[in-house]
Write a structure and sequence with these properties.
Number of helices: 13
Number of strands: 37
Strand content: 25-35%
Structural class: alpha+beta
């Protein structure tokens, strides 16, 4: 990027001594941390104003340094916007006599939720026009839509701060009236009992934001009279409430990283007492569905590390009564299942690739849907209908836009209900190449890298490559289509998705080998994938870029400390970089629930290990690549002060003249902007960062 006379921000150093296990750390930027009360105060005190002033100073610096790229950002935004169908709508799905539709109108940021009774020719009934609801807010999120079984009422959740603390309200769909009941500080989820007047919902701890309690609310009664039906006392667990697809049971689930527990209640008896299905045991995980006289359980019981499907009679639900339906397989991860009257549908993953398996209950049929591309992503929809031969699933790949497909399990015919339109007339699938390569790691593992690029892009040491990964919580980033990514591919970039340990790409063991005291495998895998791309002439360090967000931002922080020389630029979005301090503070959201992901640093073994990779603690006096860091002031997942402190420390210690930029969205949280066009603008900013760095190299070369 161009040079600028903008003054580089310098954060005040105000040493704070932090001591644990006899180890002393001096944190010069601990002062940047504010409480929620300080952040949200109308009249800010001196300490609060000091933090806000620093963040605004960084924002001003970012704007000045990147000001010359604004026309190109706008060009990218219009290009991305031009590919999407603005007046788009979802494929209608039928539930309890109504077809439900989500649609957008030209020029509008937010969706409109509507329904039609019995058939698609019926008059449209608008349930929620989010554009109207959001017009007075900088951020607006509508979620948790839940219709009563008599189709007359809807519970809905709203968040106007982006801190994922939702208000629950109830709307009468016949009159359009929104009832005065307002339930604060919830997860956004709720379920109706079968009496059409009782809802169950989950509240959050106001400080830690842990989902800690399940309440029962009766329509038109004061929320102060709501009854707490369950409190999760173990602060390493969260809780939720859901309803079985059969509508027979309300289920309360408790969970942490390695253990789960479920209780159930007849949905016809909302004031009854919940019955324990199977008490929690450390290391035992199970999720529940109901069909006929049985509960079906996706579980790791009996050391089934890749999970298996079991069932138990609803009259005898403890684990000694569980029997196998789909046994455990060493080479196949069982990810999910769906129950229909005549069929069982299984979602599996083998050698990194999704599979959908169809099995009749009477065992007369058992087959897999065929998928032919080398990399792709497929998933089964919720499919609310129980008595049907048709399942709905989605399919897409790096080169194939998303399709929604109805598949007839009886005659094996399929109907493509919708294929994603890519407007602008320039996209043709055959112009892009997608493949999968395998990189050898330092400890002998093979890591898959999914690649996509334009067919005219020459692969050599001058080719720009954007390498992306996440690598935590067992979450596997899908090889999916992106209309925005085309703006990079059409400009000669290769996109490389590294399926590193910490995901479940190669099964549950792949996750276990990238967490806790194995966490460094995640970082090593990413670096080894980078080295593979360089060694095999896909790119060079001058043209290799990296990007990750949240726990993927931790990954970015780790790899630039380990091997900064491999990358020309990185973007770390809402990065989790102050790992040791955060995991030592059980008042911070998510901390206690994540001891089984990162380890509990109150134990010295974990303290030493986490500190050895924590990006903030490992910043040193050396050269770093060009870095853009983004965060949200109201982020509840990764508090804004982590990236702010990290940038301040990097500014203090780094020995290079490369770019270091911090942009804080003062109105948003972990997920960034809420409107679809605002989200595109954020993507355009990020892509501009990489493309401008490439332009700088090209200018030097010429």
């Amino acid at each position: 990027m161009k040079s600028t006379d903008a003054k580089t921000p310098v954060a005040i150093k105000q040493p704070t001594k932090l001591e644990k296990h006899g180890d002393v750390r001096i944190d010069n930027y601990f002062w940047m941390r504010l409480s929620d009360e300080q952040k949200n105060a109308i009249d800010k005190d001196q300490e609060t104003q000091k933090v806000v002033d620093y963040l605004e100073e960084e924002n001003t610096y970012y704007k000045k340094v990147t000001d010359y790229t604004k026309p190109f950002q706008e060009e990218l935004f219009e290009e991305m916007k031009g590919r999407i169908k603005e007046d788009d709508s979802s494929v209608p799905y039928k539930d309890n006599g109504y077809f439900y539709i989500t649609r957008y109108e030209i020029g509008n940021q937010y969706p409109i939720y509507s329904r039609k009774k019995e058939n698609l020719e019926a008059d449209e009934e608008v349930l929620f026009n989010v554009n109207e609801m959001a017009k007075d807010f900088d951020y607006y999120q509508l979620g948790g839509l839940n219709i009563s079984s008599d189709n007359k009422l809807a519970v809905f959740a709203t968040d106007t701060v982006s801190r994922r603390q939702y208000f629950l309200r109830i709307k009468n769909l016949e009159t359009g009236k929104i009832y005065k009941d307002i339930i604060e500080n919830t997860t956004g989820g709720s379920v109706w009992a079968n009496d059409n007047k009782t809802i169950f919902y989950t509240k959050k701890d106001p400080v830690t934001l842990r989902s800690s309690s399940v309440y029962r609310h009766v329509l038109s009664t004061p929320t102060s009279e709501d009854v707490e039906v369950f409190n999760e006392e173990d602060d390493t667990f969260g809780t939720y409430v859901t309803k079985s697809k059969s509508d027979k049971y309300i289920i309360i689930g408790s969970y942490n990283t390695v253990s789960t527990e479920a209780q159930y209640l007849d949905a016809d008896n909302p004031t009854g007492v919940f019955t324990m299905l199977q008490p929690r045991e450390r290391g035992l995980e199970y999720s529940v569905a109901h069909f006929g006289d049985y509960f079906y359980l996706l579980t790791n019981k009996d050391n089934a590390i890749n999970f298996k499907l079991m069932k138990t009679p609803i009259t005898n639900t403890t684990k000694e009564n569980w029997v196998d339906v789909i046994p455990h397989r060493d080479d196949t991860l069982l990810e999910d299942f769906s129950i229909f009257k005549d069929y069982l549908v299984l979602e599996e993953r083998t050698n990194g690739l999704n599979k959908i398996r169809i099995k009749r209950w009477d065992e007369t049929k058992d087959y897999y849907l065929p998928f032919n591309e080398e990399t792709y992503s497929v998933g089964v929809y919720a499919n609310p209908d129980f008595d049907t031969d048709v399942i709905r699933y989605s399919y897409n790949s790096f080169t194939t836009p998303s399709s929604v497909i109805d598949f007839n399990m009886k005659d094996q015919s399929k109907e493509i209900k919708k294929e994603q339109e890519v407007l602008g007339g320039k996209f043709h699938k055959e112009n892009y190449i997608s493949k999968r390569v395998w990189a050898s790691t330092r400890d002998g593992k093979e890591v898959a890298i999914s690649l996509v690029y334009h067919k005219d892009t020459e692969l050599n040491c001058n080719t720009p490559v954007l390498q992306y990964a996440y690598g935590s919580y067992g979450y596997t980033i899908p090889d999916s289509f992106s209309t925005t990514r085309l703006s990079l591919l059409d400009r000669g970039f290769v996109y490389a998705l590294a399926h590193i340990r910490g995901s479940e790409y190669l099964g549950r063991e792949w996750y276990e080998d990238g967490k806790m005291l194995n966490k460094k495998n995640t970082f090593n895998d990413f670096v080894d994938c980078s080295q593979y791309l360089i060694d095999n002439n896909y790119t060079s360090p001058e043209h290799l870029y990296a990007m990750g967000g949240s726990a993927g931002g931790l990954l970015m922080g780790a790899i630039v400390n380990m091997n900064p020389e491999l990358y020309n630029g990185i973007i770390a979005s809402v990065p989790f970089v102050d790992v040791i301090s955060t995991m030592l503070d059980d008042s911070i959201p998510l901390t206690t629930g994540e001891y089984d992901e990162w380890g509990n640093p109150n134990d010295k073994e974990y303290y030493d290990y986490i500190k050895s990779y924590s990006p903030y603690d490992q910043v040193m006096a050396k050269n770093y690549p060009n870095i853009l860091v983004t965060t949200g002031f109201h982020d509840s997942q990764v508090q804004y002060w982590e990236p702010a402190k990290w940038v301040a420390k990097l500014r203090e210690l780094k020995t290079d003249n490369n770019l270091l930029l911090l942009e804080t969205n003062m109105e948003a949280g972990h997920g960034g902007a809420s409107g679809r066009f605002d989200a595109l603008k954020e993507t355009a900013k990020m892509y501009t960062f990489f493309l401008a760095l490439e332009d700088k190299i090209e200018a030097k070369t010429n």
